[in-house]
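Ticket #4471: structure output looks truncated?

Reporter: J.K.
Steps to reproduce: submitted the chain below (109 residues) through the standard prediction queue, then opened the result file.
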Amino acid sequence: SFHDLEKTPPFAELKGIVQTQIKAGADICKVVTTARQFEDNLTVLQLVSEFSKQKMVSFAMGQEGQLSRVLSPLVGADFTYASIAVGKESAPGQITVKEMTKIYRMIKE
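Returned output as attached by the reporter:
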């Protein structure tokens, strides 16, 4: 897995990271960055779309990255991460399972 705790690198760089993970034999590729602006959500979501035949997890951390956490499974990621409760987050920007479930129910309706 790859984590950037400071920023979201350019798409081409992230694409190369995934290709390296695939060559190394990864069963599931994981790329997690830190969103500094809205467009960073699009970058990590585009990565999921680009590697649609590969098992993939990709989203951005931080308040700015919450959108990518919610949308990543909807664009093809195998899973995302949510906190069991407020105050139990394992990474910045993580929302609760309850909030995530509420969002997915609204989308389904």
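Triage note (M.O.): checked the attachment and the full token line is present. The longest strand covers residues 29-34.
Status: closed, working as intended.
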